[in-house]
Specification:
heterodimer; A: alpha/beta; 4-stranded antiparallel sheet; B: mainly alpha; globular
């Protein structure tokens, strides 16, 4: 068996949480006073779990994701990945952004290979890895395209491939399909579910789309709109693949809608 | 379509030439103010291809051109070597920007020609004065555009780089410079254009050779045809330099090749 870029992890028994956040507080300086964004937030993610974070706009979803990604230091509180405090961004916690964040001067292939640059990997193996991931996201034949020649959905496929190739412990997704049309969004959700189940990928997925949350999540977390931390939690006990037209699916959606409106 | 576009770019020069021909041939404007195009063409041929010694300007082009080119390239390289790093730093670091932008913008308000007397006292008459003037003038657009380019890079690209394992230092070359490349090129092109303008200014001060010197020399002798030859040659060479600069950047940098 060939040694790949990093060992792919398997779904392990629900022992230690992969991500643990305890008593997180974050403030923005605003006109001389500290405006709270997140207050006393605690949350933990199991290995292999797919969790969706929903909440009204402005409730701090994206801020929380940025803190976990290491782009921001929280004002107070502990943020631990495998028990170690998160201090800076790194390939163990990759983000798929809502907006296009591909490097415009690099081809699709070069974008996907970008994160492998620092790794000791022979040229041939690297090319092989890149091809494998382009196949996985359904972009075979597009390797030499520049991002500007791609549609929004294809760009997000590249964005997914360039982080999955690094086998991150935790995949952070910040409304990644929010800017796509409904049909493309469904396709991308299916793609994400296929890939993450094959790889037992742990995911924290931010969305404001209730249907999307119920489609993807093992567990949905509702962030309080007055920055009061996680207000509600809902385990989605539906078999996969999930049929969006079943009454149970609709029931979950109604519950989440209800909470969001409160 | 391609041929049509080429025709369009040539349209105005051809019109100007026609008007010039008409005005000169009809005798509307006397030859001592504006010589006939054919006279200018003839003088140009002499200046470029003539055997040195056959006339005051015959065959001087090669020496003048190489002298001027060296001055422009030296001044331009100095301006780029200072302007790009300073601009990038000012665009990214608030501290550097606060330190540098005041003085630099103040100096920019000084018309380039004001530096001439000072440069002559500092450096005397010759290559140093010209190189100094060219460098000062070319610096500002290069600096300003590098600054704008660096400032416009959205934080999301640094975040993407950081999560993909790029250190802050390597990010300068892996992300910042490629992202800012279109602006850097714009600055370099503007700088190159200005470099040729200030070359002439620097060479007006009595240096023995150079395209600007020839123009000044011809004025003293009342040889308008040579003045016009000098102007047309500088225009043509400036255009070629611009093209070569863009081609060189595209050759050297992926980010220049693949971003408009």
């Amino acid at each position: 068996m060939m040694q790949t870029a990093a060992p792919e992890h398997r779904r392990e028994g629900s022992g230690d949480p992969l991500l643990e956040i305890v008593g997180l507080n974050h403030f923005f300086a605003h006109k001389g006073s500290a405006e709270p964004v997140l207050r006393d937030l605690s949350l933990s993610l199991r290995r292999g779990e797919m969790a969706c974070l929903i909440g009204r706009s402005g409730c701090g979803k994206s801020t929380l994701l940025k803190i976990i990604a290491g782009f921001m230091r929280p004002s107070r509180g502990a943020c631990l990945l495998e028990g170690k405090p998160i201090t800076k961004p790194g390939p163990d916690r990759c983000v798929v952004f809502q907006e296009d964040a591909l490097f415009p001067w690099l081809t699709v292939r070069e974008n996907v290979a970008f994160g492998l640059n620092g790794r000791a990997l022979a040229k041939k193996e690297r090319a092989h890895e890149v091809d494998r991931f382009l196949d996985l996201v359904g972009l075979q034949g597009y390797g030499d395209y520049l991002p500007r020649a791609l549609s929004g959905g294809m760009k997000q496929r590249v964005a997914l491939a360039r982080v999955l190739i690094l086998s991150p412990l935790l995949l952070l997704m910040d409304e990644p399909f929010g800017a796509l049309d409904a049909q493309t969004r469904d396709e991308m959700q299916d793609l994400l579910l296929n890939l993450s189940q094959q790889r037992s990928q742990t995911i924290l997925f931010v969305t404001h789309d209730v249907q999307e949350a119920v489609t993807i999540a093992d567990r949905v977390l509702l962030l309080d709109r007055d920055c009061g931390g996680i207000r509600e939690e809902l385990e989605i006990a539906l078999d996969r693949p999930r049929d969006r037209s079943t009454p149970q699916f609709q029931l979950y959606c109604r519950q989440l809608h209800h909470w969001l409106r409160q | 379509m391609k041929g049509k576009e080429r025709m369009l770019t040539l349209l105005i020069p051809l019109l100007a030439l026609t008007v010039w021909l008409a005005v000169s041939t009809s005798g509307l404007v006397p030859g001592y103010l504006l010589p006939h195009p054919l006279t200018v063409f003839d003088s140009g041929l002499h200046y470029i291809f003539g055997t040195p010694g056959q006339g005051p300007y015959a065959g001087r082009f090669r020496d003048d051109f190489s002298a001027s080119l060296v001055r422009v390239l030296l001044g331009f390289s100095l301006a780029a070597a200072l302007g790009i790093p300073l601009g990038i730093l000012s665009g990214r670091l608030a501290l550097v920007n606060r330190l540098a932008s005041g003085p630099i913008n103040g100096l920019r308000a000084v018309p380039g020609i004001c530096w001439l007397p000072l440069a002559m006292i500092w450096f005397g008459i010759g290559i140093k004065t010209t190189v100094f003037l060219v460098a000062v003038a070319a610096f500002f657009p290069i600096y300003q555009n590098a600054l704008t380019g660096a400032r416009l890079v959205a934080p999301i690209y640094y975040q993407a780089g950081a999560m993909l394992g790029v250190s802050r230092f390597r990010g300068i070359f892996a992300i910042l410079l490629p992202m800012a490349m279109p602006n850097i090129i714009t600055g370099l092109r503007l700088g190159m254009g200005i470099a040729w303008a200030y070359l002439v200014l620097g060479e007006l001060t009595g240096v023995p050779n150079g395209l600007g010197a020839v123009i000044m020399d011809a004025r003293m002798g009342g040889q308008i045809d040579i003045i016009l030859v000098g102007i047309l040659l500088i225009a043509a060479i400036g255009r070629i330099c611009d093209r070569l600069l863009v081609a060189l950047m595209r050759l050297c940098f992926k980010s220049a090749r693949r971003q408009a």
